[in-house]
């Protein structure tokens, strides 16, 4: 499973031991995902806990997810939302999202999660065309890296003023500082990180949790 970069093993284990209260249904979805191709894409349990805390602190009711994979982050957030909470969950893979759906159902949160199987840029543009601008409290971007900038720009319109955008994998396993890595994914992440540093539309913070998680709060 994914884990924070640069934290020594024993200290990492301690942090997990004393702080992570992973719900049983989340732990079982994690196990069910462990054998699936791309299992490393699943967020770590401590990152799930951090996202749940942020969603609660935000008092969020409406959450946008770009990149569902097998549904761990959707489930974690759904468990932290109030009963009338809603997640618009975007992904292109029926195969992968189908792994999470039974766990959403078992946890009693499937009514909160609206899965949209289509290229996420299309879904986000459709939401904007439908008048959903300024309507989300929080967003999580964790899909294909080459479209990160497009997802960010749309999410910035879709969240309300004061809304929070969380962006995953911003340290990209350390590749961001390896100048020999010039592949499209790495350069896209580097470019977005550099852009956000000077983006005065947001308040900015980057956490080293997991593979790096940027917090961008839309300014009022
Ligand atoms: Ca990720």
Sequence-ordered SSE layout with sheet pairings:
Blueprint: H1 9-19, H2 24-34, H3 45-57, E1 62-66, H4 72-80, E2 86-91, H5 94-106, E3 113-117, H6 120-129, E4 136-141, H7 148-158, E5 159-168, H8 184-197, E6 202-207, E7 213-218
Parallel strand pairs: 1-2, 1-4, 2-3, 4-5
Antiparallel strand pairs: 5-7, 6-7
Calcium ion is lined by residues 41, 142, 168-169.
> Which strand-content bin applies to the residues?
15-25%
Report the CATH C-level class: Alpha Beta
Largest sheet: 7 strands, mixed
CATH superfamily: Vaccinia Virus protein VP39
Number of helices: 8
Can you tell me the CATH topology?
Answer: Rossmann fold
In the sheet with the most strands, the strands line up as 3-2-1-4-5-7-6
| Helix share bin | 40-55%
Which stretches of 5+ consecutive residues score pLDDT under 50?
none
Termini gap: 37 Å
Bound molecules: calcium ion
Mean pLDDT: 95
Structure write-up:
The protein has 220 residues and is an alpha/beta fold. It has a single domain, classed as Rossmann fold (3-Layer(aba) Sandwich), CATH 3.40.50.150. The protein is 42% helix and 20% strand. The chain contains eight helices and seven strands. A seven-stranded mixed beta sheet has the order 3-2-1-4-5-7-6, sandwiched between helices. Strand 2, helix 5 and strand 3 form a beta-alpha-beta unit. The longest helix is centred in the C-terminal third of the chain and has 14 residues. The N and C termini lie far apart (37 Å). 41% of the residues are buried. The mean pLDDT is 95. The site of calcium ion has 4 residues, from loops.
């Amino acid at each position: 499973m994914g884990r924070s970069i640069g934290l020594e093993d024993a200290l990492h284990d301690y942090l997990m031991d004393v702080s992570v209260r992973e719900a049983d249904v989340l732990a079982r979805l994690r196990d069910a995902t462990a054998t699936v191709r791309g299992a490393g894409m699943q967020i770590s349990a401590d990152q799930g806990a951090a996202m749940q805390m942020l969603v609660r602190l935000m008092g969020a009711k409406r959450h946008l997810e770009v990149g569902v994979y097998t549904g761990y982050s959707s489930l974690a957030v759904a468990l932290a939302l109030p009963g009338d909470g809603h997640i618009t969950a975007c992904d292109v893979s029926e195969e992968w999202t189908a792994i999470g759906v039974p766990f959403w159902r078992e946890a009693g949160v499937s009514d909160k999660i609206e899965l949209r199987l289509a290229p996420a840029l299309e879904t986000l543009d459709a939401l904007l065309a439908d008048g959903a601008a300024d309507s989300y409290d929080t967003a999580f971007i964790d899909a294909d890296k080459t479209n990160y900038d497009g997802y960010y720009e749309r999410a910035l319109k879709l969240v309300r003023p004061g809304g929070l955008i969380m962006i995953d994998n911003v340290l990209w396993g350390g590749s961001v500082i390896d100048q020999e890595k010039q592949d499209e994914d790495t350069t896209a992440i580097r470019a977005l990180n550099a852009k956000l540093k000077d983006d005065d539309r947001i308040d900015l913070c980057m956490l080293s949790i997991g593979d790096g998680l940027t917090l961008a709060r839309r300014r009022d």
